[in-house]
Fold each of these.
Amino acid sequence: MNVLVTGGAGYIGSHTCVELLENGCGVIVVDNLCNSSAGSLDRVQEITGQALKFYQGDVRDEKLLRKIFRENHIGCVIHFAGRKAVGESVEKPWEYYDNNLNATLTLTKVMEDAGVRNLIFSSSATVYAAANEMPLKETSATGCCTNPYGWTKYMTEQILSDIAFADKRWSMCLLRYFNPIGAHESGRIGEDPRGIPNNLMPYITQVAIGRREKLSVYGGDYPTPDGTGVRDYIHVVDLAKGHVAAVKYTTEHTGCEAFNLGTGTGYSVLDIVNTFAAVNQIPIPYQITARRPGDVAVCYADPAKSAEKLGWRAEKTLADMCRDSWRWQRRNPMGYGE
Ligand code: NAD
Ligand code: UFG
C-alpha cells in the first residue's frame, strides 16, 4: 500500500518513513521544510535502500494536494505536518491555528474527494486535562489545554471524530504520543531542533557535545520521588512502529479511535540525566531552577489499549533511548546542518 506522509521530513516522520519502507509500503512525502531538512529523506532512502517520492510544499495548498492524489494511488495518510513548539504557540497563536487546523481541513477535504478515507493523526498527551489521575487512559478527561498548540491538537481530534461520525466510511486513528526521544540506531536520522532546544533530550545531547554549558532542570520540588518532573519517554523507533500498526488497523476497521503511544513507565528528569551519563560515560552538568510555567508534575500512559487493539508495544529501554540519542548527536554535531 502507498502511504502519504505529511511532515515526513521531520523527526517522527522520517523514522516512520523508514519503518513503512521496511514493511513493504510505498511512501510519498509532502513537507514544506519549515522545521526540517530534505537531507533527512536522503538518509531514509540510504538506510532502507529504497526510494520514496517527495513533494516540497504546504499541506494547506489544496492544488498541490489534489495533484499528489492524482499522481499517486494512495491507500492511507499519516498526518504529522504541524507546528509543535508550545512556547512559540503562546506568542504566535494565529500561526498555530492557521497551520495546524487549516492543514487538517484541507487534507481531509482532498482525501474525501479522492475517496481515500484512512487517516492517522499525530496527537499528543497534551490533550489530556491536567487534573487526571495517572496513568492516562484514552477515556481520561481531555481539554483545559494550557496553550494554543495543545488546543490545536484537541480541536483537530474533535474535527476528525465529527467527520468520521458523519460518514461511516472513514477510518481514523488519533495517536496520542507521550515523550518521543532517541534516534534510529544507524545514527543517520534524529531530532534536529532549530535554535535553543525546548525539550529535555535534545538539550542534554547539546550539553554533552559542548554546544550548551549546562542543563537547567525545571523544578526540584515536585511531589515525585526526586522532586523533578516525571514523563513517559518513548523511543522514536517504537513510536514509528506504532504508526505501521495503525496503518494496518485502519484497513480493518472504520470509525475514529484514540490510542496512547507510550511505554507506561514514568522517569524523572534526573533519571534521564543519570542514565544518559552512565550509558554514554559523559557527565551532564545541571542546575535545578524554577519550575517551567505550564508543566505538570507527572504524566505517563496506560498503553493497554494499543497493545490489545493495535498489537503494538514499546520495546526499547531508557538506556537504548539515551545511547541512540547520543549516537545521533555525536555523529551529527550540527544535525543535518553539516
Ligand atoms: P517536526 O517539526 O520535526 O516535524 C513536523 C514536520 O512537518 C516538519 O518537517 C515540518 O517542516 C512539517 N510541516 C509543518 N507544517 C507544515 C505544513 N503546513 N505543510 C507541510 N509541512 C509542514 O515535529 P515532530 O516532532 O516530528 O512531530 C510530528 C508531529 O507529531 C507534529 O504534529 C507534532 O505536533 C506531533 N507531536 C510531537 C511530539 C514530540 O514531542 N515530538 C509529541 C506529541 C505530538
Ligand atoms: N525539562 C527540563 N529542562 C529542559 C527541558 C525540559 O528540566 O531544558 C523538563 C520539563 O520540565 C519536563 C521534562 O523535562 O519535566 C520533559 O520536558 P519536555 O519539554 O521534553 O517535554 P514535555 O513533557 O514538556 O512536552 C512534550 C512535547 C509536547 C507534548 C508532550 C506530550 O514538547 O509537545 O511532550 O506529553 F505535547
Note: The chain has a mean pLDDT of 97.
Amino acid sequence: MSVEFKLPALAENVDKVTVTKLLVAVGDDVRKDQPVMEIETDKASTEVPSSVSGKVTEIRAREGQPLRVGDVVMVVSGNGAPAEAAKPAPQPQRQDAPVKLEAVPAPRVTAPAPVAAPAARVSNTPVPASPSVRRLAREIGIDVSDVPGTGPGGRVTIEDVKSFSRQARNDVRPARAPAPVAASLASSSEATAFGEVERIPMNSVRRRTSENMTHAWTTIPHVTQFDKADITGVERFRQQYGKRVEAAGGKLTVTAILVKLLATALKKFPQFNASIDVLAQEITYKKYYNIGVAVDTDRGLLVPVVRNVDTKSVIEIAVELQEMAARAREKKNRLEEMQGATFTISNLGGIGGTSFTPIINPPEAAILGVSRGRIEPVYIDGAFQPRTMLPLSLSYDHRVIDGADAARFVRWIVDALEQPLSLLLDN
Ligand code: CAO
C-alpha cells in the first residue's frame, strides 16, 4: 500500500513554507515522527516530522521550493498511516528543540483573498475618489486604485477604504505602496544591459524584510533624534560584573543593559510603547514591555523579542538575549519568540559606525539605534578627558511622538546610563 505524506498545518495562518533541506531520499525507510525535511517560514525554521512509516518511493518536495499545506511531500510504501491524519508531532521544549509551530498565532503569510475588481477600471483611468478618501488610503499604505468602489459610478468611499484595509489586515498585511516596487522592477531589467548579473531568489526572511521595510518607510513619517551617552562608568561596571553574568550563561553587553533601562524609560514615556490605529483614530498604549532586538543572521535580519523586561534582571535579560540570538542564527528560533514586541533596539556598535537611522518596526512607534562606543575627548571641568561615548539614534513615528518628547526620551536614557543612581530617585 502506498500513502502520501502531505504538509500538515504547522501553525495558524501559515499555509506556505519554503523547503530548505530534505532529510530523506528515495529508498530510505522512514518512521513516524522522524524529521523528513527542514522548512522555513518568514519568521522561523523547523523540522517537519513524518506522520507515516514505510519506504520512501517518491519525493515531491524540492529544496528551495515553496510548499503549501496539503501538498504531497513524499510517497511511502508499507504500513503508513493515512496522510490526512498528518499532524506535527509534539516537540519537546528543549532549547535546542526544533521550533514548535502548532497553535502559535503567527503573522499571516497567506496570499490576500481575491477582492472583486471594480468593473471597467482601466489602469490609467483615474479612480473616482475624493481627496479625503485618497489621503486616508495614503496614510494607511493602500493604493486607492486597488479598492473596489461601492459609491455611485464605482466611486471609492471612506468605508470602502476602511473595509479593504480591514480585509487586507486579516488576510495578509496592509497593502503596500506600489512605487518602490515599480522602481525596483525597472532597475532589475536595466541591470542586464550593462554587464553580467546573477539573479538569486530572495529567501523568506529577505522577502518579509523587504515588505515590512517598504511598508514602514512609506507609511510612517520617521524622524531620527541623535544623542551621545558617556558610558565610561557602564564600561567599568561591565568589566566588574561581566564574569558573574558569564557564569550565569550570558554576556553583560551594552544591549542587555539598554534593554533593561528601556523598561523604565517606556513606563515613563508611554507614547514610545504605543501603536497608532489610523482607522480608529486611536493610540493604543501597551502596559507590557517587550523589547525586540535586531539580530544579524546569514538569512538576514531577525528580531527576537525579550518579553516583560520590566520583570527581569539584567542577568536574566543577558542570558535570554544570548540564547535567542544563538537560536536565530542557528535557525532554531521559535515563532512565538519573534512576536509581540512593543519597542525595538538595533545595536550595530559591535560592527562599527558612528550613527545610522533605523527604520521603525510596525506597529511600534519607535526604535533605538546604537552605534559604536568610542573613547573621545570630552571637555569636563575645564579640561579634555578621555571618555567612552555611545552614539544613540532614536527613530520615532512623528504622528504619535513629538520631537521634544523624543529629545527628552533619549536624554533620559543618556542620564540613566551616565547616572544610574538617578533611576532610584523616582522609580
Ligand atoms: N559599541 C562598542 N562595542 C560594542 C557595542 C557598541 N555599541 N555593542 C557591542 N559591542 C561589542 C561587545 O561589547 C562585544 O565585545 P567583546 O566581544 O569584546 O565583549 C562585541 O561588540 C560583540 O557584541 P555581541 O554582538 O556579542 O553582543 P551585543 O549584546 O552587543 O549584541 C546583537 C547582540 C544580537 C544585537 C548583535 O550580535 C547583533 O546581531 N547586532 C546587529 C544588529 C543589526 O543587524 N541591526 C541592524 C538592523 S537594521 O538592518
Note: The chain has three domains: 2-107, 122-199, 206-425.
Amino acid sequence: MMTQWGWQGLGSLAAMIPLQPPAASSIAGEIDQLYYLLTAITLFFTVLIFSIIFYFMVKYRRRSKDEKPPDIHGSLVLELAWTIIPSLICVVIFVWSSSLYIRAYHPPANSTEIFVVGKQWMWHLQHPEGPREINELHVPLGVPVKLTMTSQDVIHGFYVPSFRIKKDVLPGRYTSLWFEATEAGTYHLFCTEFCGTNHPEMIGWVYVLSPRDYAAWLASNENSEPMWQQGERIFNHYTCNYCHVPDGSGRGPSLVGIFGKPEKLASGEMRPVDEDLIHQALNEPNSVPVAGYAPIMPTFKGQFTEEQILQLIAYIKSLGSQERANAK
Ligand code: CUA
C-alpha cells in the first residue's frame, strides 16, 4: 500500500520529468489547456469504447454452436446520442481553437517588430534600432514582439517551444509570428524544416530580458544605426531616389506614407503596399506596374541580400511615419 509519503514522492518525481517545455508566453498557458482538453477527450473515449467492447465481448459471447442472435433494427435514441454529443464536442473544440489561433497569429498593433532571415544554416535577426544577431534573439519581457520573417534560400521553420509558436520561413515571401514573453529566461529556438545537411545545427536561444535590461542591451550594441537609416543609404546608393521623388514629381510613384495603404496597379487591381509587394517590385517590377506610371523600373533581382531588402522595407515604412518624424 502506498503511504502519503509515497504518493507525494511519485508526484514530485513526475514533476521532474520534462514532459513539456516551460510555458513562457502570454498564449502558452491556453494552448496547453487546449491540448489537455484534447488529450482528456481522447483518453476518455478510448477507455469508454474499449471498455464497452470488452463488456459486450463477454456479455454477448456465443454460448452454443447453433445460437442465432436476434435481428436489431436500430435505436433512434442511441443514434441521436452518438451524433449530437460528438457534434457538440467538435463545436466546442472548433470555437476554442479557432479563437485561440486567431489571437496567436494576429500580432497586436503595438508590437515591436524584429526581422528574421533564415539561411543555410543560421538565423539572422535584426532589431529596428540597428543591432543584428546570429542564432540569438534578445527580447523585452511583457512586450508584444512581432517577427517579420523570410528566407535567403530554402524553407526553414521558426520554432520557440516555450512560447508555443511556430511558422515556416519561406524564400520570396514574408511570414510573421508574434509572442509576448511572460518570464525572463533563456529559451531554445529551433528550425523545424529539414533544410539541408546542417539543419540540426540551425538552433539558437531567445533571451528574455526585463525592459530595463533590454534597453541597456540595445544601447550597448555597436551597430546602432536604425534599420530605416541603413535602408535609406541603400535607397540612395542605388539611386532609387532619382525616380521615387517624395513630392510625386518623379518617374516613379512617391513612396511617402504608402506603406500599408492600397495601391492601384496598371491592371486595375488594388494591392496593399506590404513587405511582399515591395519584395516583388524589387525582383520583378514588371509584374506589378503601378497605374499611371510607365513600366521602366529595372529589376534588382540578385542584387540585394534579404537583410538589405528588409532594411529597404524599414525605410519605406518609416517614410511619413510618426516615429520617423520624432527621430529627426
Ligand atoms: Cu533551417 Cu532546418
Note: The CA atoms of residues 59 and 317 lie 72 Å apart.
